[in-house]
Amino acid sequence: MVVADHWGKPKINGAGPWDDNISASVFKGINHEMKGNGKVIVRQAGVANLIEYKGKVRAYFQWLPTKKELQLNFDHIAFMDFESGEWSKPKVIQMPFDNKPHKYPVDPTVVELANGSLRMYFTTVSKKRAFIGSALSRDGVNFSIEDGKRFEVKKADIRDCAVVYFNGIWHMISPTHMGNGKGFYGTSSDGIKFERQKDVRIKVSGDWLGNMVVKDEAVYFFGTGFVAKTQNFKEWKLLSKHRLQDPAVAYSSGDTLVLSTTNSP
Description:
Elements: E1 20-27, E2 39-43, E3 45-53, E4 56-63, E5 76-83, E6 86-87, E7 91-92, E8 106-112, E9 118-125, E10 130-137, E11 143-151, E12 162-166, E13 169-175, E14 182-188, E15 195-201, E16 207-215, E17 218-224, E18 226-230, E19 237-241, E20 245-252, E21 255-263
Antiparallel strand pairs: 1-2, 1-21, 3-4, 4-5, 5-6, 5-7, 8-9, 9-10, 10-11, 12-13, 13-14, 14-15, 16-17, 17-18, 18-19, 20-21
């Protein structure tokens, strides 16, 4: 299981999320059988999210390079574009914050809004709990943090959310990180204020740690250990089991593009 723990000065000689990589695979056709980790495309990274933006597939992700020149905030949110079968080099987004390391946004999930702007949902913390915040961007590079909390649950840390717009409603799922097939679920009419709904559940040893895709009037959740399908967020059909961690999926040119978090070497 992958659990992000980003804040504070890194212990470079110790284990941490900076030991992970993002790997990519391309499967022919629409494929829900996640097999193999694929090829590493960026090291010291994880928590990938895929969207189609300005005609290209773009990955937003957590980037944790330990090179001294990149350690100003240590933990970065970056993106890469996929075009003509190749990935661009990572580029760090710009997001002003209060310069307190524990306040820096992590675990990005990006969606495109009706006006073409992007909203990034991310994990951050209050004095007591982790919750989901958000930021807006008009160009996909410069983000401004929005005030308030998008989603929180009493007596629980809410991290690593997945978000999708389906049937006129914004849907958010966040894992329990317990590997028990249970996830926190909230809905919103405006993408700003999410109200908690009945938890999502599926009979599998896995986590709702991953990403959602809308295809053929259904929502597909690509989670850690499983792929499931729904049309109402109440009933989920298990489509497959796999060994990938925190997968992100996009359908591009008739193929299925998959990113996942993999461990070094």
